[in-house]
From TrEMBL:
SUPFAM superfamilies: Class II aaRS and biotin synthetases (SSF55681). This is BPL/LPL catalytic domain-containing protein. Belongs to the LplA family. One of its GO terms (molecular function) is lipoyltransferase activity. One of its GO terms (biological process) is protein lipoylation. Transmembrane segments: none annotated. PROSITE patterns: BPL_LPL_CATALYTIC. Pfam families: LplA-B_cat (PF21948). It comes from Acyrthosiphon pisum.
Amino acid sequence: MAFIIRRFYSSVIEKTVLISRSTDVFENLALEHWYYRHSDFTNKSMLLLWVNSNCVVIGRHQNPWLEVNFDPTIDLRIARRNSGGGTVFHDNENLNMTFFTNRDIYNRKQNLELIVETLKNEWNVVTEINKREDIVIDNMYKISGTASKLGRPNAYHHCTLLVNCNREFMSNLLRKHEKNIETNATVSVTSDVLNLTQINNKVCINRLMTAVGLQYLKTVGNTTTINQGFNYVTPNEQTFPGFNEIKNEMESWEWIYGRTPKFNITVKCNEKSVVLSVKNGIIENFTTACNVSLNNLVNEKFNMNIVEEIKQHLKTIDM
């Protein structure tokens, strides 16, 4: 059910809040892109709320091998989204919000102010928006990251909100380590993060969804909506024709890894080293001063296991 407000220039804008029933990162990213690609936001705007199971989501122009600490003992999903920005960790205690509008009325700051106001009104949690347009506490601890996709005619701004996520797990996955990678890819900025429950333990995902949704549906005047603008959606091909094609692309190796900007990675062992040149996730060539042949790696898909194999091989080579 949609909630309708009249803007000051007499046009009618339909505002809707949707909540995804899925916790699959690829389904939710595909749903988000489906709305961006197929919806007409000329006279409507929409807020999509969604929660994912454990995963790491990198920005469109990022290098996953630089951003994520790959651990073979952890079954972790890695996804690449369509928007820019940095890498984020998702779990079921992290709320994702996507604000859809027509490009002409896109307003990221207004969306962030809405969240700030909601946290203050509902839980007396005081936050602010920094210069990077992250939501922070005490001008230090980040609770929300933000990114956007601006097209024609549609645009969206999406952001996260840390409620009670596994910060230790997140830190281990995303903590920066020296990986000897040279690239022009977008590199995430490391930030100290905080869960909202560390400020007020009464904050929870379900109530947060309701509070943000209601705040979003408020008008400038005296009219508000009470749950009338909320709908649940299940991402699937039947409801959203073309959905499977988008989802299949987003969970493919070609999208997650093959879209990585070109990079060089230096593999060192004692005083010996090899430099791999990787384009579109494929090893193009290598250079080395060692007496080692790696021709079998050329045209192979790059992964971190190859780095370990080269290190072991270098141990057996005499200079």
